[in-house]
Amino acid sequence: MAVIVLVLVTILLRGAESRKARILENFDYRAISCRAHTASLTEFGGVGDGKTSNTKAFKTAVDKLSQYASNGGAQLFVPAGKWLTGSFSLTSHFTLYLHKDAVLLASQDINEWPVIKPLPSYGRGRDAAAGRFTSLIFGTNLTDVIVTGDNATIDGQGEFWWQQFHKKKLKYTRPYLIEIMFSENIQISNLTLLNSPSWNVHPVYSSNILVQGITIIAPITSPNTDGINPDSCTNTRIEDCYIVSGDDCVAVKSGWDEYGIAFGWPTKQLVIRRLTCISPYSAVIALGSEMSGGIQDVRAEDIVAIHTESGVRIKTAVGRGGYVKDIYVRKVTMHTMKWAFWMTGNYGSHADTHWDPKALPEIKGINYRDIVADNVTMAARLEGISNAPFTGICISNVTIGLAAKAKKQPWTCADVAGITSGVTPRPCELLPDQGPEKAVTCEFPEDNLPIDLVELRKCSYSMHSYV
Fold first, then answer.
1. Domains of the chain
2. Residue 408 class from Cβ within 10 Å (0-12 exposed, 13-18 middle, 19+ buried)?
3. Where do the DSSP E strands lie in 156-247?
4. What is the Cα–Cα distance from 192 to 100, expressed in whole angstroms?
């Protein structure tokens, strides 16, 4: 009997020794933080057939992995496949990583989109006065959050929502694809975002944000499909992004009318670089119109605009309050534009009827330099506010090639003040050219903002199967 037992034990041990680890997935990526624990969505019941709802699987996975927040953090791996899901929330010290052949499909079932309150700095939803549908990927009061992949796809299947919007059938504001609020240390990178119901990426009331290597594509006629909207955020870096959309490629915001004034949370220390934008009906970068909490220290450079309505556009109005100041733009190339420069102080669209007619925005310290544009209908349309003119405008080293059917008057200016230097065609009288003897180079800060000092670490993911 003892001999039989010994033989069985020997066989089992040899069997165990003969089992080899087979690597199912193994790759490296760069991130602000690496994680000690990993898991796949399939471990929580995920099914990547494009038909089965994975909302419960995502929620269960995030909930289970949250236990590692204080123990090295966790990363959730989404394998190749089509993963249908409604809205789900993230947790702190967490990475959501999508395989290069993974596609997140936003659910068409409206019951999978919980409704939450309007943003306090807006007072109401953008589409409707009531609340708003939670974004597809959502998080609040978090720290150290990463959403990334090897150029994986998140498809918002927005046509359903666009039709509801146009038919005025929505009781709540449409969801965004990614929204992180009241959080810090955020990375959103290396993803393709398609057909968002509304805005694509919306960090709000947050700080230390890196948005990098994002491709955003939506039909150019799709409503409000803004690309990246930093909103009441501090220390943000947006770089190496390609955006085709039906609205502004980057829209900088900080609250709406009296609600934004009362909330008083500005967007500041924002870097935008190496951005390519196509948006025939909107701007490359829009400052406002919801800017009532203030916008300050925006640095944009190495920008390419192709068939876009305007370059950097400032949008505000009486009742907005707040400010837009210390704006720096350089190294911009534009092809086929309606306006190269556009500032407007009469942008309406108020949150409600309670806006204060005495709340006048302050627009000053606007610096544009080293810009080349061709096939432009009109060089500039600059319209300030009669009793609150836009001041401190500086435009230097700019060459604008007008289109064959350009406006006869390339510049229109009202209630603005500033200077120009080396600008073609000749600017309006309110922005006098300084001449070669007093040539001016408009400012662009050479110091680094804190977000520029953030270095990414090399992280690894590995999943094994024992056979």
1. 24-348+359-462 (2.160.20.10)
2. exposed
3. 178-181, 184-194, 201-204, 207-217, 234-244
4. 10
Tell me: pLDDT of 8 over 50: no
Tens digits of per-residue pLDDT, 318-342? 999 999 999 999 999 999 999 999 9
User: Which two structure tokens, joined as six digits, stand for 140?
Assistant: 């609040």
Characterize 424-441 residue by residue with b for buried, 16 or more Cβ atoms within 10 angstroms of its Cβ, and e for exposed: ebebbebbebeeeeeebe
247 catalytic residue (yes or no) = yes
Which among 180, 66, 27 is positioned nearest to 76, based on CA atoms? 66
Q: Evaluate whether 63 touches 76 at the Cβ level (below 8 Å).
A: no
pLDDT of residue 311 exceeding 80? yes
Which residues does residue 421 pair with via DSSP β-bridges, in sequence order?
A: 396
- What's the burial of 400, exposed, middle or buried (CB within 10 Å: 0-12/13-18/19+)? buried
Q: 374 with 412: CB under 8 angstroms?
A: no
Residue of 127, 144, 231, 247 with catalytic role: 247
CB-based burial of residue 53 (10 Å sphere; 0-12 exposed, 13-18 middle, 19+ buried)?
Answer: middle
418: left (phi over 0), alpha (psi -120 to 50) or beta: left
Q: What is the pLDDT of residues 240-256, one digit of tens each?
A: 999 999 999 999 999 99
For strands 132-133 and 115-116, give the pairing: antiparallel
Q: Does the pLDDT value for residue 216 go beyond 60?
A: yes
User: Is residue 394 a contact partner of residue 324, using CB atoms and an 8 Å limit?
Assistant: no
Nearest one of 195, 206, 72 to 138, comparing CA atoms: 206
Cα gap 257→229, rounded to integer Å: 18
Report the half-sphere exposure of 303 (CA within 13 A, side-chain side).
31
Q: Which of 412, 443, 410, 406 is nearest to 430 (CA)?
A: 412
- Do 98 and 78 touch, CB atoms closer than 8 A? yes
Closest listed residue to residue 246, CA positions, set 268, 220, 269, 265:
220
Strand partners, 273: 239, 301
Residue 3 reports pLDDT greater than 50: no
> Is residue 316 within 8 Å of residue 356, measured between CB atoms?
no
* Residue 212 vs residues 96, 206, 448: alpha-carbon distances, Å: 15, 17, 17
H or E, element range at 258: helix 257-263
Strands (DSSP E) contained in 32-109 are 37-40, 49-53, 74-78, 81-85, 88-89, 94-98, 102-106
| pTM passes above 0.85 | yes
Contact 341, 312 (CB under 8 A): yes
Segments in 322-369 forming alpha helices (H): none
